[in-house]
Amino acid sequence: MTKMIFINLPVTDLAASMAFYKALGFENNPHFTDETAACMVWSEAINVMLLTHDKWRTFTSRPIPPPTSSEVLLALSFDSRAEVDAANEVAAANGGTADINPAQDLGFMYNRNLADPDGHVWEAMWMDPSAIPTD
């Protein structure tokens, strides 16, 4: 079996969050989706579980952080710098926030940070491994 990661995120509006992630290029897996949760697939190994607050609370009693805080910064790789830029435009047009941190251009790597409608932070990034400095 392929090793997989399921990132669980609490969301306030499941439908709006599903639309946001779909606009970024995620696919919905209906086998793990109901009125309390949605499985959004990025790749064969990476899935994001969007959970209503009530559903989230069945997993943990820890508080849900406010949307202005950050617990993690999750990175998604894209095939080009243009796709990184497009991801930020899509985020802003679909209830998220683009460029929540300054863009970074290291030549071999380029990234811009965005937030989903609930403030979860994502780094859209592109990297050319063949151009990584070897010094």
From TrEMBL:
It comes from the Bacteria. SUPFAM superfamilies: Glyoxalase/Bleomycin resistance protein/Dihydroxybiphenyl dioxygenase. Residues 3-127 form the VOC domain. Pfam families: Ble-like_N (PF22677). GO terms for molecular function: lyase activity. Keywords: Lyase. PANTHER family: BLR2408 PROTEIN, BLR2520 PROTEIN. This is Lactoylglutathione lyase. It comes from Luteimonas salinisoli.
